[in-house]
DNA sequence: AGTGAAATGACCATAAT
DNA sequence: ATTATGGTCATTTCACT
């Protein structure tokens, strides 16, 4: 079991989701703690897996990825082993920046990036449609990021 | 236009997507630079908007959000003004951790979290379905995060 | 390379259980 | 007493010029 989050923990999480690279000293000042206890709490949050990591958010277009899309995949009913292998292959593709298994019509939702339409076409045609166990693939291009991955709100209480 | 990314820049981006909180000294060592030029490049990448920010990745369940879902929204054809207001309302909801406008069948894809089924129901019934201009809403719960938001691959060359 | 700031660990204080 | 909180100080390491 995990210990409950203190009000200080919650403040730390709020600040750190907005600026993951803030110095511990500045963080401590923002949340109203001295540096030392602030750092102790931060380490504990990492240790407990509340904070899973820190990540620089990089502009995909600056890396030359002009195309962003969601791909909706339906699977054929098949033995569990096949499903595992399919999912492992999917995870291995660089184009896949996120993938979730869903309950409902669609079985898998893939968030993908590609350099251009051609390479996205190559990806779907040669590397998605050919996966054994895939029944249906349809792609929708992203027109705009209305709310591009924001912090998870940190409730006041548990 | 933006200046092209040097091999050092690319290495910096790779490391920082994996650990956004690494110290400049350690980063410099990893990418094979002295601390000073490494810091200059880092600042330039931030300045140029290649790095958009830094963010702690927080475990949603640790915050008490047991439910994660994708919501697929179809819109009625309507005047542009309505659409803007709808999107602004959508952005304002805490449950919405990401939202993208799509080309195709579905107009909007919403990535949402909620404390439990009840509060997710309240969210969709009272705050999504009632938005003026919404024609259809369907939700799929996330069963598992097969690949939970990974770094964008940094190509060797432009 | 040098200086001011930050990180980090050892140790202490207070309060609630 | 124990657990959880936060603080102070001294030392090492880092950021930045």
State the shape of chain A: elongated
CATH topology name of the largest domain in chain A, in short, is Alpha-Beta Plaits
> Strand order of the main beta sheet of chain A, please?
3-4-2-5
Largest sheet of chain A: 4 strands, antiparallel
Q: Could you spell the SSE succession of chain A in H and E letters?
A: HHHEEHEEHE
Architecture of the largest domain in chain A, according to CATH? 2-Layer Sandwich
CATH superfamily of the largest domain in chain A: Lrp/AsnC effector binding domain/regulation of amino acid metabolism (RAM) domain
Give the count of structural domains of chain A: 2
Average pLDDT of chain A: 96
Q: Figure out the total of helices of chain A.
A: 5
Task: Give the % helix of chain A.
Answer: 25-40%
Poorly predicted regions of chain A:
none
